[in-house]
Design goal:
Length: 193
């Protein structure tokens, strides 16, 4: 699948990104995290969540008692969409068509890994898996059982914590994000009990 996705031309984003950034992690993972799309660092490294948002995610996972090496981590869209601002490549949000074009890869990842819990990180992942009307601000932490047997839940995207307006807001948002992941960890333990 990774090899097939490397040549994906289902939307135009392949021309924008350096490479397809496929999901990675344990294929027998009970937990799958779904972000939006690779960022600048991920696009260059070819791996999800290895840049600044990844550092926030790592910190919160550790606080929540979740070992990243046991998790499967992927994105709703697998190419980096950006626009040039001087020498910098600024993130651009993927649109509905791009999210839909990439959806078969995500569906297949879920089918193959068969996680017990899938966590959508932010609005784009929610749009892909829970629909356009889903509101992370109102519905974070709720559990949505799926016909395939897993549950989907949602929390904020770690990059929203990087954008917090001041250190106090950042601390509060980090605490809430960690708390959401703690609930996920408890849910996983309840499933295996
Ligand atoms: N943001 C995402 O949504 N995914 C990544 O892999 C990195 C940053």
């Amino acid at each position: 699948m990774r090899a097939a996705a490397a040549g994906c031309r289902a939307c135009d984003l392949w021309e924008c990104g350096t490479q397809t950034v496929f999901g990675e992690g344990s294929q027998s993972s009970e937990l799958m995290l779904v972000g939006e799309q690779p960022g600048d660092k991920e696009d260059l490294a070819g791996r999800p969540f290895v840049g600044p948002a990844g550092r926030i995610l790592d910190e919160a996972l550790k606080e929540a008692g979740i070992d990243r090496s046991t998790v499967y981590i992927t994105n709703a869209v697998k190419h980096f969409k950006w626009e040039a601002r001087g020498k910098r490549r600024l993130h651009k949000r993927p649109d509905s068509r791009e999210i839909a074009a990439c959806r078969p890869w995500l569906d297949r990842e879920i089918e193959l890994v068969q996680p017990k819990v899938v966590v959508c990180l932010g609005a784009t992942a929610c749009q892909a898996l829970l629909g356009r009307t889903f509101k992370v601000t109102k519905q974070r932490g709720e559990l949505f059982p799926q016909p395939a047997g897993h549950v989907i839940t949602a929390t904020v995207h770690p990059s929203s914590i990087l954008r917090a307006r001041d250190p106090a807001a950042r601390e509060a948002e980090m605490k809430a994000f960690t708390e959401d992941l703690r609930l996920v960890e408890r849910q996983l333990r309840a499933f295996s009990a």
